Amino acid sequence: MSTYIISDLHLSEDKPVTTTGFINFIYQQAINADSLYILGDFFNYWIGDDDKTELHQKVIDALRMLTRQGISCYFIHGNRDFLIGKRYAQQCSMNILPQQTLLDLYGQRILLLHGDILCTDDREYQNYRKKVHTQWVQSLFLTLPLFIRRRFAKKIRQNSKYANGKKNKCIMDVNHQAVIKTLSHYQANWIIHGHIHCHAIHEIIIDNQRYYRGVLGAWDREGSAFIINEQGIQLILFPF
Questions:
Q1: Per-residue confidence at 208, pLDDT binned at 50, 70, 90?
Q2: Confidence of residue 172 (pLDDT cuts 50, 70, 90)
Q3: What does the alpha-carbon distance between residue 31 and residue 22 come to, in Å, rounded to a whole number?
Q4: Quick check: helix, strand or coil at residue 206?
Q5: Cα 7 from Cα 189, distance rounded (Å)
Q6: In this structure, which CATH number among 3.60.21.10, 3.40.50.2300, 3.40.50.150, 3.30.1360.10 belongs to the domain 3-239?
Q7: In 3D, which of 2, 82, 46, 38 has the Cα closest to residue 223?
Q8: The model scores a pTM over 0.90
């Protein structure tokens, strides 16, 4: 059996092709796994577990189908869906994991995370991240009426798109020293993340030892996933 890892689907009502691609992935590929890990930005935005939509129900149905087959589902928050709470997770039958989760699989120590905390050169984003992850800010936001939260989310997405368009792409990439520091702290030989939307496997040499950083792509025109089993760690791409 295999462990599947995905990230950055950015599911939303205005991207039905991606939603169809996700449902197909669940029924055609993930159904053959023994566990599925979702590394954040599962949804394009999340304004609270009380925001009930047809899309959210489709995801519930798909993930509950997996768990009924004995396939465990896990979730790590991303920068767009960090407000997904216990209520929705329970409806999906998925477990919310710490933002940095270390796995021991087939002799490999693999650190899973969304990836945004590795982008330390983007100080503007890191300051924003620190603010929105403050508990009182989140609690206050969730007390607002849904229609106001939707307006906030739309405005934040617009501001983010504008700000990112002005930034140097190197600033929005991971910082190499942050990667090395994180690998060393967890004594992992693999780190797998999303966030930067550039699927790849990077080799890292530390003290003459090989380590690896696996990056998942965004589900724009195709899906991507890591498959981990006794044969090793493989990055796959597939059409919707």
A1: very high
A2: confident
A3: 12
A4: strand
A5: 20
A6: 3.60.21.10
A7: 38
A8: yes
